[in-house]
Structures are given as C-alpha cells and as structure tokens.
Amino acid sequence: MTVAEESMRTPVFFVAGGTGISAETLGNLLLAQFPGLTFTRRKIPFVTTVDQARSVLDQVDAAMTDAVTPLLFSTVSDEEIRQELQRTRAAFIDLFGSHLDTVERVLHVNATHNTTALHGVGDTVRYDQRMRAIEFAMEHDDGASLRNLEQSDLILVAPSRCGKTPTSMYLALQHGLKVANYPLVPEDFDSADLPRPIRPLAEKCFGLLSTPARLSQVRGERRPGSTYATLAQCSYELRRAEAMYRAHRIPSINSAKMSVEEMAAVIMQSSRLPDLG
C-alpha cells in the first residue's frame, strides 16, 4: 500500500468502559456496509475516568486530517465520560447512550450504568453455565473424549480443518452451550454410516463442510506437501462427508466463507438451540 493510499484509510476507534467487545462488534457491523472503503482500527477499552476520556480525545483528534475524519464508536455508559467524548472533532457514534433513554422510558426504570454488566460475571448462574460449557468443549475437542457425550447440546461433525474447534468454543463462551466436536477420519469415509461413538446421537449432530480449494489451502498451511492437503483428498473427504450427512438427515453448512459468528448463528437457528449464556 502506498503512502497516498494509507493516508486515505479512515481511522476508526472503538472506545468502551469495559472490554470493548460490543463496541468493536457493533462498529464493525456498520463498517461492513461500506466494502469499498478501507479503515485503520484501534480498540481502547476500560475508559472509566474523565482523564482517560481526554487522553482518548487527544489520540482521536490527532488522527484527523484534511482528507479524512476519524470515526469514534462508543459503548461508554458513564454520562460524564460520554459528555467528554462528545467533545471530539471526529464523528462520534454513541452505541450506548443514544438508545438508553428509550429503554429507560419503556421500562420505567433508570439504568444503573454498570460497565461490567455485559461481559463481566453479572448473572452468576449464566456465568457458571458458560464456564461449564467451555470446560465441556475443551474436554470433547476433536474427539479427545467420549465421556458423557450424551450430555452435549450439540455435536459438530466434520473432516479435519473445517472449523469445528473455534465454532465449538464460540458457542460455549458466548451462548453457554455444551458442544462436542468429532473429526471424520479416513476410515469413516469407507461407508455412509455415522462413526460408532456418535451413531446413537445423530439428532444432536450438525455437519460442517468447506470447499476443496479452501480446505486444501488451510491444510497446506498445517502440513505442506502432504497427501492430507491435496485437492483430490479434500474433494473426496468433503464429498463423502456430505453423503453421510444426507444419509442421516444431519443439517450442515459450508464454512468456507463464513465467520465463526455467522456459523454459530446459523447453527443455533437451524438446530433451535437456546442461548444459555
């Protein structure tokens, strides 16, 4: 990228009183609607004092040029800090306060402005559920354990490197679901039968697929030059996996061009899984 091109990238700041996860997620959702533009992104979490807010303003305003105006996405809940951030010369997008008044009016209750409520412990029951789900996902990652497999909310089934592990962990962390993932290995492709350990649990299974080219690329990064990564091997495994899913009426998605967040949303909707986290 040339210096001229770099100078035209819009600076984007995600500012929050907590971890910044929500500011980043919501801000990026809006930025995704402008695929022709380029951005430089910076997350600034745990802004909990006015002095810190002033330091943020120094950074944001320093990024302003005659050519570009920075964007400041904020989920800061503290009123005094929000007012300070609004002094910026950049574009201030208040993802929290702009909606808070409406919610307070509908609920007839004043908000607590609790910066830890969303990603902190908060509801201890839901927090404990997430922690148990993460432990379950780690224990049952890649078929490592078959113990208590019947207790799973979901079993992800797929050939190697189709995205089972990150999707399992995301569903556990964000939604409190106990997700096991089971890898399909070469001997599993000899027939359309489900592997024996998961055969009685077909109603809990969800299949992941990819494209041969994408799977070959990902496997090649892990084992370059191996048969495992060849286009022919990837094509064969995906074809056999798809036939297996079809034979047992197991729903499936192609993960090649989907983010983990998108995959999780589709899986939850398709399997009608509750959000427990």
TrEMBL record:
Top-level taxon: Bacteria
PANTHER family: PYRUVATE, PHOSPHATE DIKINASE REGULATORY PROTEIN 1, CHLOROPLASTIC
Name of this protein: Putative phosphoenolpyruvate synthase regulatory protein
Enzyme class: transferase
Keyword Kinase: yes
Keywords: Kinase, Nucleotide-binding, Serine/threonine-protein kinase, Transferase
Annotated HAMAP family: PSRP
Keyword check for GTP-binding: no
Catalytic activity: [pyruvate, water dikinase]-phosphate + phosphate + H(+) = [pyruvate, water dikinase] + diphosphate; [pyruvate, water dikinase] + ADP = [pyruvate, water dikinase]-phosphate + AMP + H(+)
InterPro entries for the chain: Kinase-pyrophosphorylase, PSRP
Residues engaged in binding ADP: 158-165
Enzyme Commission number(s) from the entry: 2.7.11.33, 2.7.4.28
Species of origin: Knoellia flava TL1
Functional description taken from the UniProt entry: Bifunctional serine/threonine kinase and phosphorylase involved in the regulation of the phosphoenolpyruvate synthase (PEPS) by catalyzing its phosphorylation/dephosphorylation.
Similarity remark: Belongs to the pyruvate, phosphate/water dikinase regulatory protein family. PSRP subfamily.
